[in-house]
Design a protein that fits this description.
It is built from 6 helices and 3 strands; from the N terminus they run H-E-H-H-E-H-H-E-H. It has helices at about 1-20, 45-50, 60, 95-105, 105-110, 125-140, and strands at about 30-35, 70-75, 115-120. It is α+β, with helices and mostly antiparallel strands. It is globular.
Amino acid sequence: MREMNLKRNALQKAYLDRWQASATDSKGPIDGIIMAVTPWAAARLGSTQKLPYVGYTGVWNVLGLDLPSCTFPVTFANQNVDKARSAESWKPLNDQDEMIQRDYDPAFYDGAPVCLQLVGKRLEEEKVLEMVGVVAKCLEG
């Protein structure tokens, strides 16, 4: 257990160093990261049991970085706009990517929320919520 904690602490320190290195001479380090939550608009019931994918969230919590994040809706899937990719126009990166893309059905996902997440620095939960509020206001119009 001690070895595992030491490795986790080293990973947290390396990530903090990388985060702090984003500072420039005139500005401090980045406040947060905005990114996808999942590769789906909203996961189908049971799909995460078939494909246990935490690639977009796991780095922040599963790996032990212990960074706060908050998900927020930005739009809704629209079957008239969000078409499935054709085999001719797209090549999967790996088997997992192929499975995710094969699962996409524009009619099924029509109207499903599309969300992003905002990730902040460790122990800055309140700041993350404040930043999400700013993003939400920007999305309003």
